[in-house]
Amino acid sequence: MWVEPIGRVCNAAEEKQDFEGLISEIEVFPEFAEGLYRIEDVPELLILFVFDRSTSYEMHVHPRGDLRNPEVGVFASRSPNRPNFIGVTQVELLRREGNVLTVKGLDALNGTPVIDIKPAVRRDLVDTSHK
């Protein structure tokens, strides 16, 4: 299997933190920028990325690493320590400028490789009448 990054995250998050309200930019590499055509019609996106700083995984975790939280299976959590190190977050698209998307709510660190971007809902269900 081969997965190629299509871009990278640019933000102020250098280590695990509370990501709520964080504004991030996703720089889409120039060779993939044409794929952003009309993305501004979609208010919410799914950003798929690689937990590139993860080095191992556990099958049971305490959500948010907090031992007060009941242990769950890794697939029932948002832990970055997963067998395939793939993350996904639904974000609000604030604006697009060329090959750069400004989004709110992305829980990825600065420099994280982005592997895909998708509408959060099917394209035929998106209301574009306000544009």
Describe this structure in words.
- This protein has 131 residues and is an all-beta fold.
- The protein has one domain (10-120): Beta Barrel (Elongation Factor Tu (Ef-tu), domain 3), CATH 2.40.30.
- 0% of the residues lie in helices and 34% in strands.
- The chain has strands spanning 7-10, 23-28, 44-50, 60-61, 72-73, 86-97, 100-104, 113-119.
- The strands form 2 sheets. Strands 1-2-7-6-3-8 form a 6-stranded antiparallel β-barrel. A two-stranded antiparallel sheet has the order 4-5.
- 18% of the residues are buried.
Short description:
By secondary structure, the chain is mainly β. It is built from no helices and eight strands. The relative contact order is 0.33.
Can you tell me the CATH superfamily? Answer: YaeB-like
Order of helices and strands: EEEEEEEE
- The Rg value, from CA coordinates, equals 16 Å
Estimate the mean pLDDT confidence.
89
Estimated helix fraction = under 10%
Poorly predicted regions are none
Strand order of the largest sheet: 1-2-7-6-3-8
